[in-house]
């Protein structure tokens, strides 16, 4: 058996019955610093299944909770495993949410109100107004 096949089998066992990391994407965004940035984050958080988080390196991300179209949701397996994108290949179980005891996020915003509270706590004087 080739080394790649062995590695794939190992991954399959480690990921047994789990598909968490194929159910969302996270895209890096700039740290918000001004009213336009705050507005944009509020706008993102007003959408269903969209979250924003800050990781332990203080990098900011917008997260879309949406499954990959190549995930077989019954078997929880990738249907293009041998041809999966590099970002999927680079992802390690040792860093994943299932095997890592601490959460990947330092700060997690699920709603616009979560983010407004963060601004209040930081004493950032910002009034969100739907009627501009
Ligand atoms: S890498 Fe981790 S989160 Fe992703 S499927 Fe495997 S065990 Fe689940
Ligand atoms: S391509 Fe495969 S491994 Fe990558 S996110 Fe989609 S289902 Fe998961």
TrEMBL record:
Protein name in the entry: Zinc/iron-chelating domain-containing protein
Annotated source species: Candidatus Buchananbacteria bacterium CG10_big_fil_rev_8_21_14_0_10_33_19
Origin organism lineage: Bacteria, Candidatus Buchananiibacteriota
Pfam families, A to Z: CxxCxxCC
Tree of life domain: Bacteria
């Amino acid at each position: 058996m080739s080394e790649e096949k062995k590695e794939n089998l190992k991954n399959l066992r480690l990921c047994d019955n789990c598909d968490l990391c194929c159910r969302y994407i996270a895209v890096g965004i700039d740290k918000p610093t001004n009213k336009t940035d705050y507005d944009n984050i509020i706008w993102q958080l007003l959408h269903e299944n969209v979250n924003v988080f800050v990781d332990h390196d203080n990098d900011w991300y917008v997260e879309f909770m949406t499954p990959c179209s190549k995930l077989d949701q019954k078997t929880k397996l990738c249907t293009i495993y041998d041809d999966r994108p590099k970002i999927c290949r680079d992802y390690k179980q040792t860093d994943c949410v299932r095997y890592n005891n601490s959460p990947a996020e330092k700060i997690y915003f699920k709603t616009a109100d979560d983010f407004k509270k963060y601004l209040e706590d930081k004493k950032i004087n910002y009034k969100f107004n739907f009627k501009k």
